[in-house]
Design a protein that fits this description.
The protein has 12 helices and 7 strands. The chain has helices at 5-28, 45-52, 68-74, 78-85, 119-133, 151-163, 182-185, 193-197, 211-226, 257-264, 267-277, 283-306, and strands at residues 60-62, 139-144, 167-173, 176-177, 180-181, 202-207, 232-237.
Length: 324
């Protein structure tokens, strides 16, 4: 597929925004101003952007505890996200959700989820709604390699096949379920995609550290699902650059492992090399994006630090749905 210059710059900007957002959080969390656990997405940017670049605002995604990248790729406001992570009243969820529970229904982001495998059933429900309204929408469940072992995920995949809904199961295999390596945690057959295949759905596989491979593979998958063929799944082989959570000492990593994956599997570096070697973009264009993104993240942090927390008088709001 041919990419325009604007397409390429836009894809890079979204990946760079995720990387800069996460790297800044890595530093800000050390100040003690951010409450709760935070799980950074840095390293996996090509997966989120390669998937979401095909989606419309009407399509829906359900995220995981490692959800900042999915939020940004789907179009959530970066400043609103930062306010939410700082627990401020102006955050996307009014400061009530924090890092692991960001949602923005206005852009089709149905929510991050602190329960491993908890998003798959929600995505199937959203896919059922999409099938009924016949508008051609899809619903995507992002999951990690750890979620492939969860009963909720198995039940959701089976339900999706039985009901033939436009659900897509995206497994981002970053090789670790919390602190346990995939070679140990996943059974004899290490091919996660084949688990979805066993339920009778078509599956794809791609290099999640390569934006172009992820994008092209996802295009074929979405064509299949939007044509009314029922659910599908994709396994993206990727890496995370930080620990399971901020503060994780990562003693389970091998010697030199993090240096190796940063040197060999950095999706942003690979993107820059490819477009520069092909003379598709001048390096100064992406350097300018880097500067713009840095300015945006600085502003987001400054606003979040200065913003007030939620008004205590609103503590009972948004607890129950009023059906009247």
């Amino acid at each position: 597929m041919q990419f325009s210059r604007d397409d390429l710059v836009g894809a890079y900007r979204r990946m760079k925004t995720i990387r800069a957002f996460e790297e800044r959080l890595h530093d800000e969390i050390k100040t003690g101003e951010i409450a709760g656990f935070t799980h950074l997405y840095a390293g996996q940017e090509a997966a989120a952007v390669g998937v979401c670049d095909h989606l419309t605002i009407e399509d829906m995604i359900v995220s995981t505890h490692r959800g900042h990248g999915h939020c940004i790729a789907k179009g959530c406001d970066v400043k609103g996200m930062m306010l939410e992570i700082y627990g401020r009243g102006g955050g996307l969820c009014k400061g009530r959700g924090g890092s692991m529970h960001i949602a923005d229904l206005s852009v089709g982001m149905l929510g991050a989820n602190g329960i491993v495998g908890g998003g798959a059933p929600q995505a199937v429900g959203a896919a059922m709604a999409a099938k009924l309204d016949r508008k051609g929408r899809v619903a995507i469940a992002f999951s990690g390699d750890g979620a492939c072992n969860q009963g909720t995920t198995f039940e959701a995949m089976n339900m999706a096949v039985v009901t033939k809904v436009p659900a897509i199961f995206v497994f981002e295999n970053n090789h670790y379920s919390e602190h346990t390596g995939v070679d140990y945690a996943v059974g004899t057959n290490k091919d996660i995609a084949s688990r979805a295949e066993a339920f009778g759905m078509k599956v794809w596989r791609a290099n999640g550290c390569d934006y172009f491979d992820t994008y092209e593979t996802m295009r074929a998958l979405l064509d299949y699902v939007r044509a009314g063929n029922g659910p599908a799944a994709i396994e993206l082989d990727t890496e995370r650059f930080y620990g399971h959570f901020e503060g994780d000492p990562q003693r389970y990593r091998g010697n030199g492992e993090l240096d190796r994956i940063r040197d060999e599997r950095d999706c942003l570096a690979a993107f820059r090399t490819r477009v520069f070697d092909a003379k598709l973009i001048d390096p100064t264009m992406l350097d300018a994006v880097d500067t713009e993104v840095a300015t945006l993240i600085d502003a987001a942090v400054a606003e979040a630090r200065a913003a007030p927390p939620p008004d205590p008088a609103t503590v009972a709001e948004d607890v129950y749905v009023d059906y009247v």
